[in-house]
Amino acid sequence: MAFNQDANEFHWLMDMLESVEVGLVVLDLDFHVQAWNGFMEHHSGITARQIRDKVLFEVFPDIPEAWLTRKVDAVAMLNTRAFTSWEQRPYLFKFRNTRPITGTEEYMFQNLTISPITAPNGEVEKVCLLVYDVTEFASSKRALERANEQLAKLSMTDRLTGLLNRGTWENLVDAEYERFRRYGQATSLVMFDIDHFKPVNDTYGHLAGDEVIRHTADVTRNNIRQSDSAGRYGGEEFGIILPETDAESARVICERIREAIEKSTVSTSAGDIQYTVSMGIAQLTETPENYMQWMQKADEALYKAKESGRNKVVVS
């Protein structure tokens, strides 16, 4: 009677291990496969009979052997479980993702638990790997992170041009002002705008005007360095922070932008548009008491460029 009960319990246990939606792999300490359940058969295409007593790394050469060996050695030595999440290592077994809901992910994301299996004398003789499919959760989290990154980027950038928006750019001007106060390195600020922009809008329409603004942003982006920061200050007005740059070096950069715009033509559905920009430069000195006064100096240089005929670069 007891034998039949034990057999029934064993059969029930094996049936559960075969049908559960968790991968179960039992390895001896030389990494020979001793057990391989239905989940592993389904996702690998390899049956338990085919893989039994084979070395895991020979069947799955993509598995990081050194990493898994260290993990298993620690489990066997300390006789304690180890856990690895998909965020630490996306997967142990390179199984293709088969869930239609999370079809955007190419491979199955996995959490892994490694548990010791002891002999009657208490010594660890095998380990059990439990492989959990967490693709749906991981995919959702990754999508949320991407969305948050996009929202953060949108909150910092101007939608029309992709340049920094006014608030973000002004914060950087303030930070650069404080950096100058601390270290005293040369730094310059540029304010510039599009000449006669209202007639462009009036003649060609606001959509064409937007194309001119986008073109200005693209030319600016292509002619500054990675360390520089360009922003759309408002309407047709822009600003550039040029760290570690004196007024003369800033003038060279601005002339490059001004000439590139002067020589270019913006093709729009309303017609081809040629235009110019005026630019003002202020190298930071000890005189400004805050970043707003520094911006004012650059704005004054811009005003002089406009007053003296436009399509010019003026240094304050």
TrEMBL record:
PROSITE patterns: GGDEF (PS50887). The keyword Lipid metabolism does not apply. The keyword Transferase applies. It is an enzyme of class 2 (transferase). SUPFAM superfamilies: Nucleotide cyclase (SSF55073), PYP-like sensor domain (PAS domain) (SSF55785). It holds the Pfam family GGDEF. InterPro entries: Diguanylate_Cyclase, GGDEF_dom, Nucleotide_cyclase, PAS-like_dom_sf, PAS_4, Rev_trsase/Diguanyl_cyclase. 3',3'-c-di-GMP 2 binds at R225, D228, T245, R256. Its cofactor is Mg(2+). 3',3'-c-di-GMP 1 binds at R225, Q226. GO terms for molecular function: diguanylate cyclase activity; kinase activity; nucleotide binding. Its EC number is 2.7.7.65. Residues 185-316 form the GGDEF domain. It catalyses: 2 GTP = 3',3'-c-di-GMP + 2 diphosphate. Keywords: Kinase, Nucleotide-binding, Transferase. This is diguanylate cyclase. It comes from Marinobacter nauticus (strain ATCC 700491 / DSM 11845 / VT8).
